[in-house]
Design brief:
single chain, 233 residues, alpha/beta, 7 helices, globular
């Protein structure tokens, strides 16, 4: 009888431990599968193709430059060099104002870009337009882009001081204020490192030459790269 009890007890313990082992295997399998899914999702988030819309004026439209030498073209080359899966639609037009950009943006957003770079406002200022109009148009473009689920990179500009200190400073301040208000990324000044070097401008003293555009690209890149969900070096 004792022997029978020992045999039964042994079988019960064996069954218990076998069951426990099976449960542990299942738990480990589920945990491993979850890790694979998380890793896969993370990889997909980084590798999924992104689209970038550039809505700008002559500074982004290669005015007076050989094709392929402007900062937007250089940006596409940078993306490829860094193996970042992203394509660019350059919807920039020479002479474009914030009013024109605001009018064109809705149709451009139909392609659902992931990132919208807004480089507009300089032509408004050069024409002496009301700052409230420029601010309102920029706000409307930011709102439209964000409503379409796109991230926004606002590009700041300065104008020559001969337009009056009050006007020029208030114009420059628009960009930082709008960026803060809407929580967008910001390029503080597109021509930083270029504006103070006359030799980097074309004869009109307004548009940079090709040699200036790598500098312009770097100004944009440092603020754009975080939006692409890749680590900055």
């Amino acid at each position: 009888m004792r022997r029978l009890n020992k045999i039964l007890k042994k079988k019960m313990l064996s069954g218990f431990f076998n069951g426990l082992a099976n449960k542990l295997r299942i738990i480990l399998f589920i945990g491993a599968a979850s890790l694979v899914m998380i890793a896969s999702a993370t990889t997909s988030a980084h590798s999924a193709s992104k689209t970038i819309l550039v809505l700008g004026d002559s500074l982004s439209a290669e005015y007076g430059l050989p094709r392929g030498t402007g900062w937007v073209a250089l940006l596409q080359q940078r993306l490829q060099a860094e193996k970042i899966n992203a394509t660019i639609t350059n919807a920039s037009i020479s002479g474009e104002t914030t009013s024109g950009g605001k009018t064109r943006l809705p149709s451009l957003l139909k392609d659902q870009p992931d990132i919208v770079i807004i480089e507009l406002g300089a032509n408004d200022a050069l024409r002496g337009l009301q700052l409230t109009t420029t601010e309102s148009n920029l706000q409307d473009m930011i709102s439209a882009a964000q409503k379409s689920k796109a991230k926004v990179l606002l590009v700041g500009m300065r104008i020559p001081p001969n337009y009056g200190r009050d006007y020029t400073e208030k114009f420059f301040g628009l960009y930082a204020a709008l960026s803060k208000q809407n929580k967008t990324a910001l390029v503080p000044f597109l021509l930083d490192g270029v504006a103070n070097q006359p030799q980097l401008f074309q004869a009109d003293r307004i548009h940079p030459i090709a040699q200036a555009h790598p500098i312009i690209l770097n100004n944009v890149w440092s603020n754009l790269k975080p939006l692409l969900n890749v680590k900055t070096k």
